[in-house]
Design brief:
With about 525 residues, the chain is mainly alpha-helical. The chain is built from 20 helices and 13 strands. Among the domains are: about 140 residues, Glutamyl-tRNA Synthetase, domain 3 (Alpha-Beta Complex); about 150 residues, Arc Repressor Mutant, subunit A. Helices cover about 40% and strands about 10% of the residues. It is elongated. The chain binds glutamic acid.
């Protein structure tokens, strides 16, 4: 079977070392989109082999973040699946046989060096002019390992329980080549890869071995992950070969970095507070300090906007269209439209997406989200009334919460008048005109926005008044402030009694201008 015809299986494989940052969510999103687009499976695998870096609550956080983003899993720790378990710590026993195979075939070896001995090796290499010394195909010959010790000595050390690690034995001068779906051909000489530790005497594999064994065992067809893993990929490809899985090497796609807004370097977990926006999808409470790190969900962003923004950090549809919901992203997504160069994070663009998605939301959906629908004045609002009100104000909001302010004049007439608005536009000399206008519109046969608008303009013409003078006063009288949606629409919805009452009250209550 041709590789491209394989069943598509992709995995998101975070390590539970802390909260998922937006870069991690983007990796999950691209995996999800790729799987859904190609009728494949989207799998969550928790890579928790490094127990020293394990952070309690991190896995729960990852699951919560994925579920907030609606990135539903086909297989994973909580949903199960035929290739489980999906936590590497629960797969611990599976790895040793592969390590043993590598040792038996001469592709890996035991190493017994203590931390002091490793430091000593680095020190002496540095003083010999090697800038970044590593345990590699040259230095290993002067270290304490099963390649330099007699066989019986190695066996003795293992049987008496000495601490050891297993290292991959990188060959000399060997070209390792693979094709990345985003970067094209990648080629590395094995002399540039150190003899990485693949297994430790505590019975735990390291990331590299566990990652490769699990991708193989879980029949992963495509490895889609962040660019920071690109340097590990040649080693992974080499491990596949050593393990005899050359035909099963997944296709790699290393996603571009997410950069700070000014383009200077990678956006990191620490940048959030400093740059004034969250870097986490949902709130994270540090289990040690109880400190809360803000998430986009709690800051009032919608999942649709958040996902839309993430999708555009590295991918584009090749058209002018920018606003996409998750289904639309699925049908448009392709790895061939993911770029190589880093994508600058743009918080303002996210706000714009939020506004666009709010505009796309059904009035009914917004109605269901706004719990308090009781009004504090004489009308008895129907659902129709609320749907019209929402339609009138929704264009003006960036966040669902902003709507509360925009809706406030429809909820109660017990607002206070905004002092700045009064200072700017309340003109005592024009009060008689405001009062006459109130009477005229009160006597209208049809109290509709278009009728009100016509009589308002007629009144201005007849009295030689400018719109810029009387309109702001009407607005202050009705809503308490200067900004707001179409005034005539507001008047129609409030109804003539309420309008008259508010104008009369404003004339009486606002004494200065
Ligand atoms: N466990 C790695 C991480 O934390 C996964 C890298 C990969 O996807 O291979 O990102």
């Amino acid at each position: 079977m041709n590789k491209d015809e394989k069943v598509i299986r992709v995995r998101f494989a975070p390590s539970p070392t802390g909260p998922l940052h937006i870069g991690g969510v983007r990796t999950a999103l691209y995996n999800f989109l790729f799987a859904r687009k190609n009728n494949g499976k989207f799998i969550l695998r928790i890579e928790d082999t490094d127990q020293n870096r394990y952070v309690p609550g991190a896995e729960k956080y990852i699951q919560e973040a994925l579920s907030w983003c609606s990135l539903d899993l086909d297989e994973g720790p909580n949903v199960g699946g035929e290739f489980g378990p999906y936590r590497q710590s629960e797969r611990k026993e599976m790895y040793y046989s592969f390590v043993k195979n590598l040792i038996d075939s001469g592709d890996a070896y035991y190493a017994f060096d203590t931390p002091e001995e490793l430091d000593g090796m680095r020190e002496s290499m540095r003083s010999a002019g090697v800038p970044s010394p590593t345990y590699n195909n040259i230095s290993r010959s002067s270290m304490i390992n099963s390649l330099t010790l007699p066989l019986d000595e190695t066996e003795k050390r293992i049987s008496r329980g000495d601490k050891f690690v297993v290292r991959i034995k990188m060959p000399r001068n060997h070209e390792i080549k693979f094709k990345d779906k985003i970067r094209g051909w990648v080629s590395v000489n094995s002399n540039n890869i150190d003899d990485k530790v693949i297994y430790k005497s505590d019975g735990m594999p390291t990331y590299h071995l566990a990652n490769v064994v699990d991708d193989y065992s879980m029949k992963i067809s495509h490895v889609i992950r962040g660019e920071e893993w690109l340097p590990s990929a040649p080693l992974h490809v080499y491990l596949y070969k050593c393990l005899g899985w050359e035909d099963q090497i997944p296709q790699f796609a290393h996603l571009p970095l997410i950069l700070k807004p000014d383009g200077n370097g990678k956006l990191s977990k620490r940048d959030g507070d400093r740059l004034g926006f969250p870097v986490f999808p949902v709130n994270w409470k540090n289990p040690e300090t109880n400190e809360i790190y803000k998430g986009y969900r709690e800051e009032g962003f919608s999942r649709a906007a958040f996902i839309n923004m993430l999708a555009f950090l590295g991918w584009n549809p090749g058209t002018e269209k920018e606003v996409f919901n998750l289904d639309e992203l699925v049908s448009e997504f392709s790895l061939s439209r993911v770029g190589k160069s880093g994508a600058k994070y743009d918080f303002n663009k996210l706000k714009w997406f939020n506004q666009q998605h709010l505009r796309r939301m059904d009035n009914e959906e917004i109605y269901d989200n706004l719990v308090d629908k009781k009004v504090d004045f004489s009308i008895n609002p129907s659902k129709e009334y609320w749907l019209k009100v929402i339609g009138l104000v929704k264009e003006r909001a960036t966040f669902l919460d902003d709507l509360k302010l925009e809706l406030s004049c429809f909820l109660s007439n017990k607002f206070t008048y905004d002092v700045n608005s009064i200072n700017k536009k309340w003109n005592l000399e024009l009060l008689p005109h405001l009062s006459s206008l109130a009477t005229i519109i009160f006597n209208l046969q049809k109290f509709t926005s278009s009728q009100i608008e016509i009589s308002f303009h007629n009144y201005l013409d007849d009295n030689d008044l400018s719109l810029g003078k009387l309109m702001p006063m009407l607005r202050i009288a009705i809503t308490g402030r200067l900004a707001g949606p179409s005034m005539f629409g507001i008047l129609e919805l409030l109804g003539k009694e309420e309008v008259k009452l508010r104008i009369d009250r404003a004339i009486k209550d606002i004494q200065h201008g």
